[in-house]
Amino acid sequence: MPYFCCNQVQALEKTFKAIQLQRMQGIPIVNPALQVEAINFQVWEKYCVGILITPWFMNLLVLPDSTEQLHYSPKSDEKITYHFPSGEYEFLVCYEESLGIYHSCSLFSPMFDFTTQEIAKQTAQQVLMLLMQPVELMEKKGISRRDLLRGKARE
Predict the structure, then answer these.
(1) β-strands 58-63, 47-53 pairing
(2) pLDDT tens profile 58-95
(3) CA dist., res. 48 & res. 41, Å (int)
(4) Nearest to 39 by CA among 17, 18, 9, 66
(5) pLDDT by residue (tens digit) across 33-45?
(6) CATH of 3-149 given 3.40.47.10, 3.30.1460.40, 3.30.70.260, 3.30.70.580
Protein backbone atom coordinates (compact mmCIF):
# COMPACT_ATOMS: atom_id res chain seq x y z
CA MET A 1 0.00 0.00 0.00
CA PRO A 2 1.47 3.41 -0.95
CA TYR A 3 2.57 5.73 1.82
CA PHE A 4 -0.31 8.24 1.42
CA CYS A 5 -2.88 5.46 1.58
CA CYS A 6 -1.22 3.81 4.57
CA ASN A 7 -1.26 7.07 6.54
CA GLN A 8 -4.92 7.66 5.73
CA VAL A 9 -5.91 4.15 6.81
CA GLN A 10 -4.05 4.50 10.11
CA ALA A 11 -5.83 7.83 10.75
CA LEU A 12 -9.16 6.23 9.78
CA GLU A 13 -8.83 3.38 12.28
CA LYS A 14 -7.60 5.72 15.02
CA THR A 15 -10.52 8.10 14.42
CA PHE A 16 -13.19 5.40 14.51
CA LYS A 17 -11.70 3.68 17.55
CA ALA A 18 -11.96 7.04 19.33
CA ILE A 19 -15.55 7.44 18.10
CA GLN A 20 -16.36 3.99 19.51
CA LEU A 21 -14.97 4.95 22.92
CA GLN A 22 -16.27 8.51 23.06
CA ARG A 23 -19.62 8.45 21.22
CA MET A 24 -20.87 4.88 20.91
CA GLN A 25 -20.69 3.55 24.50
CA GLY A 26 -24.09 2.25 25.58
CA ILE A 27 -25.68 2.74 22.15
CA PRO A 28 -27.91 -0.28 21.38
CA ILE A 29 -26.81 -0.64 17.73
CA VAL A 30 -23.24 -1.59 18.75
CA ASN A 31 -22.37 -5.26 18.22
CA PRO A 32 -19.89 -6.16 21.01
CA ALA A 33 -18.53 -9.10 18.97
CA LEU A 34 -16.97 -6.70 16.44
CA GLN A 35 -14.16 -4.16 16.43
CA VAL A 36 -13.02 -1.26 14.25
CA GLU A 37 -10.91 -2.53 11.35
CA ALA A 38 -9.94 -1.19 7.93
CA ILE A 39 -10.11 -3.95 5.31
CA ASN A 40 -7.99 -4.21 2.14
CA PHE A 41 -7.52 -0.54 1.38
CA GLN A 42 -5.88 -0.10 -2.01
CA VAL A 43 -5.15 2.66 -4.48
CA TRP A 44 -7.81 2.98 -7.14
CA GLU A 45 -7.31 5.81 -9.61
CA LYS A 46 -5.99 8.56 -7.30
CA TYR A 47 -7.94 7.44 -4.23
CA CYS A 48 -7.51 5.06 -1.34
CA VAL A 49 -10.51 2.64 -1.38
CA GLY A 50 -11.52 -0.07 1.06
CA ILE A 51 -14.05 -1.12 3.67
CA LEU A 52 -14.32 0.01 7.25
CA ILE A 53 -15.85 -2.43 9.72
CA THR A 54 -17.10 -0.99 13.01
CA PRO A 55 -19.37 -2.55 15.63
CA TRP A 56 -22.20 -0.37 14.28
CA PHE A 57 -21.67 -0.30 10.48
CA MET A 58 -19.74 -1.65 7.49
CA ASN A 59 -19.11 0.98 4.82
CA LEU A 60 -17.23 1.17 1.55
CA LEU A 61 -14.98 4.24 1.83
CA VAL A 62 -13.11 6.44 -0.60
CA LEU A 63 -10.40 8.53 1.02
CA PRO A 64 -9.45 11.52 -1.16
CA ASP A 65 -5.79 12.48 -1.24
CA SER A 66 -4.59 15.30 1.00
CA THR A 67 -4.48 17.90 -1.80
CA GLU A 68 -8.20 17.40 -2.39
CA GLN A 69 -8.80 17.89 1.35
CA LEU A 70 -7.28 21.37 1.28
CA HIS A 71 -9.61 22.77 -1.37
CA TYR A 72 -12.94 21.27 -0.43
CA SER A 73 -15.63 21.94 2.15
CA PRO A 74 -18.59 19.52 2.20
CA LYS A 75 -22.25 20.38 2.62
CA SER A 76 -24.04 18.17 5.13
CA ASP A 77 -26.22 16.39 2.55
CA GLU A 78 -23.76 16.26 -0.33
CA LYS A 79 -23.38 13.08 -2.37
CA ILE A 80 -20.85 12.01 -4.96
CA THR A 81 -20.95 9.18 -7.50
CA TYR A 82 -17.96 6.97 -8.26
CA HIS A 83 -17.69 4.82 -11.38
CA PHE A 84 -16.10 1.52 -10.35
CA PRO A 85 -15.57 -1.36 -12.81
CA SER A 86 -18.76 -3.03 -11.50
CA GLY A 87 -20.89 0.12 -11.88
CA GLU A 88 -21.83 3.45 -10.37
CA TYR A 89 -22.21 3.89 -6.62
CA GLU A 90 -23.41 6.89 -4.63
CA PHE A 91 -21.41 8.02 -1.59
CA LEU A 92 -22.12 10.53 1.14
CA VAL A 93 -19.50 13.22 1.66
CA CYS A 94 -18.50 12.96 5.33
CA TYR A 95 -16.15 14.81 7.64
CA GLU A 96 -14.40 14.03 10.92
CA GLU A 97 -12.04 16.64 12.34
CA SER A 98 -9.23 14.17 13.05
CA LEU A 99 -9.57 12.56 9.61
CA GLY A 100 -10.82 15.20 7.22
CA ILE A 101 -13.16 14.54 4.33
CA TYR A 102 -14.02 11.03 3.24
CA HIS A 103 -16.74 9.48 1.09
CA SER A 104 -18.92 6.69 2.50
CA CYS A 105 -21.28 4.13 0.94
CA SER A 106 -23.27 2.13 3.48
CA LEU A 107 -23.18 -1.66 3.18
CA PHE A 108 -24.58 -2.86 6.52
CA SER A 109 -26.02 -1.17 9.60
CA PRO A 110 -26.57 -2.30 12.25
CA MET A 111 -24.10 -5.20 12.33
CA PHE A 112 -25.97 -7.84 14.32
CA ASP A 113 -26.01 -10.30 11.37
CA PHE A 114 -22.26 -10.74 11.91
CA THR A 115 -21.50 -13.04 14.83
CA THR A 116 -17.71 -12.76 14.50
CA GLN A 117 -15.12 -10.32 13.19
CA GLU A 118 -13.90 -13.00 10.78
CA ILE A 119 -17.33 -13.31 9.11
CA ALA A 120 -17.50 -9.52 8.72
CA LYS A 121 -13.97 -9.49 7.22
CA GLN A 122 -14.80 -12.25 4.73
CA THR A 123 -17.90 -10.36 3.61
CA ALA A 124 -15.89 -7.14 3.20
CA GLN A 125 -13.23 -8.93 1.16
CA GLN A 126 -15.86 -10.46 -1.14
CA VAL A 127 -17.53 -7.08 -1.69
CA LEU A 128 -14.19 -5.46 -2.60
CA MET A 129 -13.32 -8.26 -5.00
CA LEU A 130 -16.68 -7.94 -6.77
CA LEU A 131 -16.54 -4.14 -6.77
CA MET A 132 -13.51 -4.24 -9.06
CA GLN A 133 -15.00 -6.74 -11.53
CA PRO A 134 -16.31 -5.28 -14.81
CA VAL A 135 -20.06 -4.88 -15.09
CA GLU A 136 -20.22 -7.42 -17.93
CA LEU A 137 -18.69 -10.12 -15.73
CA MET A 138 -21.09 -9.27 -12.91
CA GLU A 139 -24.08 -9.56 -15.26
CA LYS A 140 -22.75 -12.88 -16.58
CA LYS A 141 -22.66 -14.22 -13.01
CA GLY A 142 -26.13 -12.80 -12.30
CA ILE A 143 -24.95 -10.41 -9.58
CA SER A 144 -26.79 -7.13 -9.20
CA ARG A 145 -25.11 -4.03 -7.78
CA ARG A 146 -27.55 -4.16 -4.86
CA ASP A 147 -26.52 -7.76 -4.09
CA LEU A 148 -22.86 -6.80 -4.42
CA LEU A 149 -23.15 -4.04 -1.84
CA ARG A 150 -25.14 -6.24 0.49
CA GLY A 151 -22.60 -9.08 0.32
CA LYS A 152 -25.13 -11.46 -1.26
CA ALA A 153 -23.06 -12.45 -4.27
CA ARG A 154 -23.02 -16.16 -5.02
CA GLU A 155 -20.28 -18.03 -6.85
Answers:
(1) antiparallel
(2) 999 999 876 666 456 666 678 999 999 999 999 999 98
(3) 6
(4) 9
(5) 999 999 999 999 8
(6) 3.30.1460.40
